[in-house]
Design goal:
This protein is of the alpha/beta class and 279 residues long. It has a single domain, classed as Vaccinia Virus protein VP39 (Rossmann fold, 3-Layer(aba) Sandwich). It is 33% helix and 22% strand. The protein has helices at residues 54-59, 63-86, 106-113, 125-135, 144-147, 169-179, 196-201, 218-226, 248-261; strands at residues 13-14, 26-28, 38-40, 46-47, 51-52, 96-100, 117-121, 139-140, 154-160, 180-191, 214-215, 230-238, 266-273. Strands 8-7-6-9-10-13-12 form a 7-stranded mixed sheet, sandwiched between helices. Strands 2-3-4-11 form a 4-stranded antiparallel sheet, with no helix packed on it. A two-stranded antiparallel sheet has the order 1-5. Helix 6 (169-179) links the parallel strand 9 (154-160) and strand 10. The protein is globular, with a radius of gyration of 18 Å.
Length: 279
C-alpha cells in the first residue's frame, strides 16, 4: 500500500513559530525530494517551515485523494480497527463518537453497525459527500473548529493519521478537549519519527511526504496532549519493517520488538481530559 502524497507544487507559505513551544529557532532535519523539514531547537518537533497557508492545504484534498482513499479503504479500516483495539477502544461502552478526518466514512459505518452514534468531520468535500450519499452518514466538510459542536458533547473523539496534516495541531487538541465529555476518550494515531524506520530510511522514510506538515515522536505528541488538557492513558507503537523491505521471518521479529519496546513506525495514543476540580 503506497502512502499518498500530493505532487510538490508552488504554494503560498509563511514562516511560523513552533506549534508546540513557540520557539523561532530551527535547524535542518529531513530533506525529501523537492521540499524539507526543520526541527525545533527547543522541543525537537519536526515540521515544514515556511508552511503552506490553510487555504493551500485544503486544496490538496480533491477528487484524486478520494480515488486513493477508495482504493485503499479496506486496508485503512483494518489498521484503524487494530489501533483502536490496541489502545483499549473495544473496552468502552457504546456512545457518541466523532471521527475527525473520517475520509469516506468507512470506519464510522462499521461503528454505527455496532451501536455507536456517529459523526464525522472531513474537509475533503468529495470524500465527505461520498460518505453522506453512499453510506448515509452524518459527515461535515467543515473543519472541527468551524463546526462549533456543543461543549462536552462526545463520548469519544478519534483522529487517525490526521494531526500531521494540520496547520495548527494545538488548536485541534484544544477543541477536542472542549467537545469531549469529562470522562470521554481521545484516540490519536500518527507516524512516529522516533521509530526505527524513520531513523533507518531518513529522507526516504515513507511518512516524510509533502502532505505531512508535522512529524511527531511519542515525546512530542505526548507533550502536545499534556499541555492542552489531556492525560495519557496508553501509548502503543507498531511496524518495525515495511512489507517487502526484509525477509518475512526477519520482519516478524523486528515488528514484534518494535511493538514491545516502542520503536514502531506508527504511534497510537489513548488520552482522557484532565479532570477539573468540579468533575
Amino acid at each position: 500500500m503506497n502512502t499518498w502524497s500530493t505532487p510538490v507544487v508552488k504554494e503560498e507559505k509563511k514562516l511560523i513559530p513552533c506549534a508546540l513551544c513557540g520557539s523561532s529557532s530551527f535547524k535542518p532535519s529531513l530533506s525529501p525530494e523537492a521540499f524539507s523539514y526543520v526541527r525545533c531547537s527547543s522541543c525537537s518537533l519536526v515540521q515544514v517551515n515556511p508552511q503552506p497557508v490553510a487555504a493551500e492545504v485544503k486544496r490538496r484534498y480533491g477528487e484524486n485523494y478520494l480515488a486513493y482513499e477508495l482504493a485503499n479503504e479496506e486496508n485503512f479500516l483494518n489498521l484503524e480497527l487494530l489501533a483502536l483495539a490496541d489502545t483499549g477502544f473495544d473496552e468502552l461502552k457504546t456512545g457518541s463518537i466523532l471521527d475527525i478526518g473520517c475520509a469516506t466514512g468507512c470506519l464510522l459505518a462499521v461503528l454505527r453497525d455496532k451501536g455507536w452514534k456517529t459523526t464525522g468531520v472531513e474537509i475533503s468535500v468529495p470524500q465527505a459527500e461520498y460518505g453522506r450519499k453512499t453510506r448515509n452518514l452524518d459527515i461535515s466538510h467543515l473543519s472541527l473548529e468551524e463546526n462549533r459542536f456543543p461543549n462536552q458533547h462526545f463520548d469519544v473523539v478519534h483522529a487517525s493519521h490526521l494531526i500531521e496534516h494540520l496547520n495548527d495541531p494545538p488548536s485541534l487538541v484544544r477543541e477536542v478537549h472542549r467537545v469531549l465529555k469529562p470522562h470521554g476518550r481521545f484516540f490519536v494515531t500518527t507516524p512516529n519519527i522516533a521509530g526505527f524506520q524513520a531513523r533507518l530510511f531518513r529522507n526516504r522514510w515513507r511518512s516524510a511526504i509533502f502532505d505531512h506538515l508535522y512529524l511527531f515522536s511519542v515525546a512530542t505528541l505526548s507533550r502536545l496532549l499534556n499541555e492542552n488538557g489531556f492525560e495519557i492513558e496508553k501509548t502503543v507503537t507498531w511496524g518495525g519493517l515495511a512489507a517487502g523491505s526484509a525477509p518475512l521471518p526477519l520482519k516478524r521479529v523486528v515488528d514484534k520488538a518494535a511493538k514491545r519496546f516502542g520503536f514502531g513506525d506508527v504511534v497510537a495514543v489513548k488520552a482522557k481530559p484532565r479532570l477539573r476540580p468540579d468533575t
